[in-house]
Amino acid sequence: MNSKNKHFGTKAIHAGVEPDPTTGAIMTPIYQTSTYVQEEVGKHKGYEYSRTLNPTRHALEKAIAELENGKFGACFGSGLAAIDCVIKMLNPGDEVISTNDLYGGSYRIFTTIFAKYGIRFHFVNMNDTSEVEKLVNDNTKLIWVETPTNPMMNIVDIAEMARIAKKCGAWLAVDNTFATPYLQTPLDLGADIVMHSVTKYLGGHSDVVMGALVTSNENIAAEMYRIQNSSGAVTAPMDSFLVLRGLKTLHLRIQRHCENGAKVAQWLQGHPKVDKVYWPGFENHPNHAIAKKQMNDFGGMISFSLKGNKMEEAHAIMAKFEVFTLAESLGGVESLTCHPATMTHAAIPAEERQAAGIVDSLIRLSVGVEDIRDLLDDLAQALA
Ligand SMILES: *Cc1c(COP(=O)(O)O)cnc(C)c1O
Question: Which of 89, 207, 273, 295 lies at a 20 to 30 A Cα distance from 170?
Fold first, then answer.
């Protein structure tokens, strides 16, 4: 079936997947093989060596590309390996403009790996378009957007960044990990590249580490596949199979993440011990209008701070959680919680951290798809 012109829920189940040509197996088999027999020299079925292409990975790459409304997909050993591939498309002297509240690992690969090869990175508040425009020059080759951001849930206007990128001849890449294509499709808004930490919502079950890129630009795609094959940070057939399975329920999972997220955000907002709640669905969220414009719903990621802003109090609440589990990562079916100031963002100097809103009492929730009554009960007993 050609699912390209179908709706999202149909695509999630059918995209990229065809019955196995040799057996009719409805599920794409785990092709656990490194190489492929050739009938004669140069005569093969499209697969020569599994770093270059593997049928299970290939099915997944087609599926993710289709969900993002893109033409070409590539999967990598992690989200960071996917980012690594994008920056390797640049040359010494090229400049990148990025958000100032970027995922820590993206900041680390930019500043500690690629800066020394002569690529310049700028980090700005992308909600102030003039700050981005001020930095644009002839060397600007890439604008890197993440939206919503972690853990402050800021929203960047993708169409506006695409406009600036087009004007200066740079590519726009969007880290779509938090939103997933169910909530927003950056290529439709003018982005050239979409990046995913598949580890999070696309995989959805906290059992795989993987990254992906999608583009519709043939020149970018040629570079993407050349680097994927040359650097070799590919993902395994078993992991590809697990994500193919995860994708089939992406729409169902995200619907429930959003539903539960909205209820948790509203409940927290009304609690006497809670100071601020960061969730783009609130009308008074500073970027609510942009979120409404470019997203179909507001997701299940929420951060909140406590009145009095005591770190010990945040730690005590987190120790009492029973359903919310203390762990890094996000986007799985189970609810997780983390303390950004001491976990994911500990490497950022305290002053910079506070200025970005990552205060000592800030608690981040990845709201899962459990029964909402148990999630609210858990929050109530932990905050009591
Ligand atoms: C986790 C994450 C990454 C990195 O992905 P890995 O799969 O952990 O390498 C990049 N961006 C965002 C927004 C993330 O949450």
Answer: 295
